[in-house]
Design a protein that fits this description.
Layout (H helix, E strand, L loop, with lengths): L4 H10 L12 E4 L3 E4 L3 H6 L2 H7 L7 E4 L9 H17 L3 E3 L6 H7 L8 E4 L13 E4 L2 H10 L2 E4 L3 E7 L8 H12 L8 E6 L6 H9 L8 E3 L4 H9 L20 E6 L6 E3 L7 E3 L10 E5 H4 L2 H11 L9 E5 L3 H9 L2 H7 L2 E3 L20 E4 L15 E4 L2 H10 L6 H7 L1
Helix pairs in contact: 7-8, 11-13, 11-14
Length: about 425
């Protein structure tokens, strides 16, 4: 019987013989390659302060710590938390530490080559599933699990069922990976992939690494345990550019005869610009169905759509235009590296000239933690990954999700607008 990717990677990391097949639902103990934490590191370490003094950190290479959720610190309490993290890093010699300004943790992990193909990375953040874009089994864990992992270096995982998603053809010029993944969310639903590993097959050579990152980032919005693409030549080239020694990668993709809980076929050529309405990610309709919906705040960025390619797409549409006077546009690059790319060719200047407000390279408005919070009753159109009630700071605010293209076109008019006509002008 063939094996899924999840069965293969978990077997390898659990030391199971290649001839054996892990059954769905089977419990295995594994030693992850890395554990991601962010601003919550101080709370996690606080759970095991006495044990750390007695036993120490199990492995200095295990943690990846990125300060990104509230940066720079917004008050003394947050600043103290950041200080505690820095002290922990120095005391225990943590090797992979990224201080404020490096970027959103998920982008930082991928762009620095810290998510190994055919490896396992867990993180105390639900969007850890992003690293499946480079062929890594990546999933979120809670703070207690993260704390114990710092001491022991191992944890147990249940072998998940897998969902096979076959992508055919290529996206039209006016549609994006965000439109594709929102369409997939509508198809599967916000709970339809519960504790499953979503595997992407088919014409994936037609998707860039940035597009794969966007798609995997939102796997958890369908309640997936993991979301993964194979590590192909495109992925290898990306990892090589990140400084990874690709000659040591021994990647294995799912077998052709693997057994899946469900198989879904998506024709990418049929994808159109879509928008997820409040307050669920799968509440998806074509952008044309919401034409004219007034928007108070536009948010371009996050670990979902804050890379250079996203910023450039928005800038090309906004070039020569200005954000509607009744609205505001916030720009949050996914990382310092992506921001520098956007600076070098004038992309960032174009966005700022159009009225954009540049934010630090962190999470900020995405979770209503820092800057860009909504006022009561305000409406935001965002390229982020979640539109839950209260997500951006106001329990009575409304969040719509879309692509960078739809956001840019809508920002010009101050209301939700299908971007197709602007594509004809800009591209």
């Amino acid at each position: 019987m063939g094996k899924t990717f999840a069965q293969k990677v978990l077997a390898r990391k659990a030391g199971v013989a290649p001839s054996d097949v892990l059954e769905v639902g089977q419990i295995v103990t594994v030693k992850p390659d890395h554990l991601l934490t962010h601003d919550n590191t101080s709370a996690i370490v606080g759970k095991i302060s006495k044990e750390l003094v007695e036993f120490g950190l199990c492995n200095q290479d295990l943690p990846i710590i990125v300060l990104d959720h509230v940066i720079p610190a917004s008050d003394e309490k947050i600043a103290k938390g950041h200080q505690d993290v820095r002290n922990f890093v120095r005391k225990y010699g943590v090797k992979n530490f990224f201080d404020c300004g490096a970027g959103v943790c998920h982008q930082v992990v991928v762009e620095h080559g810290l998510a190994p193909p055919m490896g396992i990375v867990v993180g105390s953040d639900s969007h850890t599933c992003t690293y499946g874009s480079v062929g890594c089994f990546a999933t979120g864990v809670d703070r207690t699990e993260a704390a114990s992992l710092l001491l022991t270096g191992e944890l147990w995982l249940r072998v998940p069922p897998s969902i096979k998603i076959v992508l055919k053809n290529k996206l039209p010029p006016f549609a994006t990976a965000k439109d594709l993944v929102l369409t997939i969310a509508k198809t599967i639903s916000v709970s339809g992939a519960a504790y499953s590993c979503m595997e992407f097959h088919g014409d994936i050579q037609n998707l860039t690494m940035d597009e794969r990152i966007t798609i995997c980032n939102m796997g958890v919005e369908m309640d997936a345990k993991a979301s993964v693409f194979p590590c192909d030549d495109i992925c290898m080239a990306y990892l090589k550019s990140a400084g990874v020694d690709v000659s040591s990668i021994n990647f294995e993709w799912a077998d052709a005869d693997a057994v899946y809980a469900r198989e879904i076929v998506i024709d990418m050529a049929t994808i159109v610009p879509v928008v997820a309405k409040p307050h669920e990610v799968d509440n998806v309709v074509p952008a044309t169905a919401l034409e004219g919906t007034k928007i108070d705040q536009f948010f371009l960025g996050t670990c979902t759509n804050g890379r250079y390619s996203d910023l450039k797409m928005a800038a090309e549409i906004l070039r020569g235009h200005h954000v509607a006077p009744t609205s505001r546009l916030l720009i949050g690059p996914a990382s310092r590296i992506e921001m520098q790319k956007a600076m070098q060719d004038g992309t960032l200047s174009t966005l700022i000239e159009a009225g954009g407000i540049l934010l630090p390279t962190g999470c900020g408005p995405c979770l209503g933690a820092h800057q860009g919070c909504l006022a009561p009753g305000e409406v935001c159109l965002s390229t982020a990954n979640r539109n839950f009630k209260g997500r951006m700071g106001s329990p009575t605010g409304f969040i719509y999700l879309c692509s960078p293209a739809t956001l840019a076109a809508s920002a010009i008019e101050g209301k939700i607008t299908d971007p197709s006509k602007y594509f004809k002008i800009a591209f």
